[in-house]
Amino acid sequence: MQFIQQMINGITIGAFYSLVALGYTMVYGVLKLINFAHGDLFMWGAYLGLTGLTALLSLLARTSAWVILPAVIIVMATVALAGVLVERIAYRPLRTAGRLAPVISALGSAFILESLARNVYGASYKTYPAGVALGGGIALGGARVSVMQIAVLAVAFLLMGALYLFVQRTRIGTAMRAVSLNHDVSRLMGIDVNRIIAIVFVIGPGLGGVAGMIVALYYGSFDFTLGWAFGLKAFIAAIMGGIGNIPGAMVGGMLLGIIETLGSGYLSPQWKDVIAYGILILILIFRPTGLLGERVAEKL
Amino acid sequence: MKNLLTRLRNVNPLWWQIGLGLVAVLLPLPMNDYYRSVIWRTGLYVMLGLSLNIIVGYAGLFQLGHAAFYALGAYTSALLNIHFNVPLLLTFPVSVIVAAFFGYLITRPILHLRGDYLCIVTIAFGEVVRLALVNNTFGITGGANGLSGIDRPVLFGLVLREPIYHYYLMLFFLVITIFAMQRLEHSRLGRAWMYVRENEVAAEAMGIDTTRVKLLAFVIGSGWAGLAGALYAGKITVISPDLSKFMESVIMFCIVVLGGTGSIPGVFVGTLGMVTLPELSRPLKAWRDAWLGVAMVTMMILRPEGLWPSRRVRLEIRGEKEEAVPVPAAGS
Asked: Structural domains in chain A?
């Protein structure tokens, strides 16, 4: 029974990783850039969620779990805006500047976002207001699924499903896939590449921001290091699934969540991060394009 | 003005080196212990930057986990000293060898990776090393608190306790490092690294064993970082897994890139910007990282080749056109 419980917890954590990994993978798809700032945008989602929830609750003057919905929308919009700004200021001028410059610029953006969060909200752990987290749970043959977990999974799968349909079925989604193959040819086909990249930076950080808020709700407390710790794991998930590949990020996130939970449950919680990194290293050594990644000719 | 610059450029480089050497020797004398420690720290990061410069600057490989080797060097020194009472200076070569060996072990399987993948794997290795130290592997690394009670280095009966002694010790190793780097840069191996950086396929076609050459870059760079770690252990006498923090690796990486990849003076400039200035502006510490970030982003937009780039890299990034400044006519 412990196994089923571990699996449920693992899938929940995996859903978080998937949501954040999507942001990494989409940006990598269109820009071939590791967006180091993504983890910190995700962390800002957690902080903005805190501010939004507190403000809404004080407006309402009573506690209700329903305030989460408007808060989510606020967080999504604000973090998406921040994402677009980061792209506009720090990445767009460097699109033709080789490989090193964008990496440094991305790291610099991450520094700025993290330092801002630490100075605005302080370095101590923050807790979400009581009364917004969903209580209760269902027994499932010895294991227990909390209402919170069901809600988290429902939201995560809904968002991921919507994103998948968006990318596969709409014109903008098709344009996105085209841009990730080749900027110049896309431009020749009449695609506004800058606009598509901006849209990617709306969707990726938007999802990341929501994930940040849900993670903070799920765990209850967090601090400014959340972005880095969680972001790196999510990036590992994106690589596991094959970077640039959207279903890959979803599968990779789930796998990483499950492996990590089982690893800390059956081996040792201290080594759970080492297990995650170890898997990453093994995957990159033996299958650098990830589990679902296609074989792409190495760029010379 | 221009005349003066041209004349300065034509001065025998030996005079430059002697002058800079004199400045470096005399620099700590009028300072108090705090500033002596600051310049010691500057020297430490110059050394780390130079070691990473081999990997990132010369060979053009991404390495965002360099701090791991720095930590391994420090831990090797500390463990030998604490458990076997080996005098600290004698542990230095061992630290270098251990760090270089781990550099070999870790990078051998990942050499075929390129660019971003290499970047991520090295981050992962850095974190694995840090976590292994935190988790007190084999019960010898002292866990999250690290190791303390490391002896001071003793040189001919003189216990190096004051910061100024450590500064001169650092200076000694730094001079060796810079000399070695200059030799390396123009050696057969150094030129091979630059071929690999510019175009790996062409390098291979020229008969360069790219795997061996890249591996050597990692091994030499890691070993040198190990030496810096040992020097750190000797001065601070307390070490913790924080040495292998990602932030440390990022600082080293930025020193190399902001200064100008592949450029020895660039590493100095980068260290001044990334380490010395932030150290001196401690009162502004809260906003330090934010300013560092702003500086990194603006630098990359305005001057992606770094503050003091090597000529080759500048040409590569800026193109040939910029070099075509009209040469002043002879005799002007």
From this structure: 2-286 (1.10.3470)
Residue B1 — pLDDT band, cuts 50, 70, 90?
low
Average pLDDT over residues A80-84: 95
Q: Determine, for residues A108 and B115 on separate chains, whether the beta-carbon distance falls below 8 Å.
A: no
CA dist B296 and B287 (Å) reads 14
Say yes or no: ipTM exceeds 0.85: no
- Residue in A163, A242, A252, A257 with CA at minimum distance from that of residue A210: A163
**Structural tokens at position B14:** 């030996």
| A248 contacts A12 by C-beta, under 8 angstroms | no
Residue B99 inside a domain? The answer is yes
**Statement: residue B286 has pLDDT above 80:** no
Q: Is A94 on the interface with B (CB under 8 A)?
A: yes
Counted domains in chain B: 1
Asked if B304 lies within 8 A of A101 by C-beta distance, the reply is yes
Q: Report the chain B residue with the minimal C-alpha distance to residue A93.
A: B301
Q: Which residue has 């640039």 as its token pair?
A: A244
Which neighbouring-strand residues pair with B147? Answer: B239
Q: Measured between alpha carbons, how far is B143 from A33 in angstroms, rounded to an integer?
A: 35
By the CB < 8 Å criterion, does B301 face chain A? yes
CB distance from A107 to chain B under 8 Å?
yes
Residue numbers of the domain that contains B100: 32-245
DSSP structural state of residue B54: I
Torsion-angle region of residue B46: left (phi > 0), alpha (psi -120 to 50) or beta? alpha
